[in-house]
Amino acid sequence: MAETTLGGAPLVPLSHYVHAIKPELPAEAFTPARSRLAWIPVHFAIIAVAAASIALGWVPWFVYPVLGLVIGVSFSCLTFLAHESMHGGVVRDKRARMIVGWIGFLPFMVAPRLWAAWHDRVHHATANFPDDPDIYPTLKEYEGSSRIRFFVNAFSLGGRRWRGVLSLVLGFSVQSLHQLIASERSGFLSKKQRRIAIAETLLGGAFWLVVAFVVGFVPFLFIYVMPLVVANMIVMSFILTNHNLSPRVTVNDPLASGLSVTSHRAWEFLTLGFGYHVEHHLFPAMSSRHAKAVRTLVLQKWPERYQSMPLTTALGKLHSTARVYKDDTTLIDPLTGAEFPTLMPRVA
Prior knowledge:
The protein has helices spanning 14-21, 39-55, 64-86, 94-105, 112-125, 139-144, 146-155, 166-169, 171-186, 191-215, 217-243, 254-257, 265-270, 277-282, 291-301, 311-320; strands at 5-6, 9-10, 260-262, 308-310, 324-327, 330-332, 339-341. It is mostly helical.
């Protein structure tokens, strides 16, 4: 079989990496990290105390934004827990995964059934392929669709245009709603499964409507609306850096199609190591608490292929480059014509 290359660098199938690394990892790396479930009562307690402090007037009004920020961080951390759980890294039983997923995704009202199809099944098999549901468009697609042009021009992070911050503050909420609406047309879900996913989303919406009714309008702004914006920014800061500086590919090669981002140890602890995204794509069902062990082995075997940088650096690159693909390895700003190379594995 002819070797597939991209910009002179070979594309290596996922199975090659897995077969090389798996024997060198400890057996515990492949067992569910059930202790992660302890994060649920911890974050629920934080959210409950902060929400009660706002709703019952236990603190002066100028403390509300601080508590809203705290709630938002907990929202995002629960989302990362839901992500890991849905892959089987926390619990393996399907029903348990769905329950933990619904709880963790509750701030965003993402249906676990939708996530399992959109992210776990489709995205992980097609990361940065032309049919990846999360990939940005080609120049041809951009020029051929007024809808795509609007969303790229108005919301995408890039071109040093600060309105791109909207993709951070709204991104995950908008993206998940879009995927739910398009799920049947995209082939993610059958009609029956889509109806169940809509019901899961509506159940989450009903929960937040009850909260709004109980606490009142102004407290709700700081108990849910502001925290949702904060959580969007945190979650999207990782999601956007995972793949959107990387090339389009035709082989499921996580070292070519993905980027790992690093942060302060405390932030990595809170966000459950979500930034180690290359490692996650190598072993999706593995808890990310073992990501650094995977990273060490990857660096030993393929140091020239592994791509990683600090989260803040990656966000800066997103802001200063573009989100439309001129070709597989070139990003282009269609408004200015400026071109930028994607990240690429080095050739040994």
